[in-house]
Design a protein that fits this description.
This protein is an all-alpha fold and 176 residues long. 43% of the residues lie in helices and 0% in strands. Helix 5 crosses helix 7 (162-174). 17% of the residues are buried.
Amino acid sequence: MFDTMTMTKATGAVCGALLVLLLGGWAASALYSTAPHGGGHGEEVAQAYTIDTGAAAGGDEPAEVVDIAALMATADPAKGEKVFNKCKACHKLDGTDGTGPHLNGVVGRQIASSAGFAYSSSMADHGTDGTKWDAEELDHFLRAPKSFAANTKMSFAGLPKQDERINLIAFLEQQQ
């Protein structure tokens, strides 16, 4: 079964495979070298272009101040009703709690004060000082609920668009 010709073919196949592997490695290292240009012999290499990410300038810029009252004056409650469709899965406007507390009368109501709803501890802490839901508080909460109350039960990521938040708040103001 193993004669000289079979052994010669097997040895040739192994040597051929090793040769292909070595030549492939040599070609790949020539094409995709990570060494600096010029062989890395201490030569200074200038970068062709630089993308400014703003990281060097630091993050000391003041946060943008938004005039919520001026935005509320131009808000469209009809558009806010469309935005509320994102909230309907958990919140109701009929005075009954769902997965989340009911939202009728929320504007002007004390934070975490819907009777019978079990709020998270961080959300309940916001309500202990008597703070009420006004346009500024709602805007802050709706932008990123987890940044407002760290362990809030609300799994919704938030509304990143300012106009959607303002229109929703205008709609909720009408639901008294």
